[in-house]
Amino acid sequence: MKYIYAALLLYESGKEINEENIKKIMTAIGEEVDDGMVRSLVSSLSSIDIKEVLESATALPVAAPAAAPAAPAEEAKEEKPEEEKKEEKEEEEEALEGLGALFG
Hints:
The chain has helices at about 1-10, 20-30, 35-45, 50-60, 80-104. By secondary structure, it is mainly α. The longest helix has 22 residues, at about 80-104.
């Protein structure tokens, strides 16, 4: 991704997108340069009209924000039998014991 940003920076500043210029940018930001990646990027970009790609990317319609979710209707609370509450509590305690084994 950094290499693509370097190429876009060169494009925006009106500089030629070539291996030497990309390497200069990468070294200026303190990154180790992967020569193969630079060659591949320059080769790929040579057949692409960057201006056209950027214009088509910005011309895409922006999705309308999603409507706010409706307020949830109040649900009738059902009382759980005492036995189910105990089972849930036991399961929760077992799960916590298992987590304790992870830490010590």
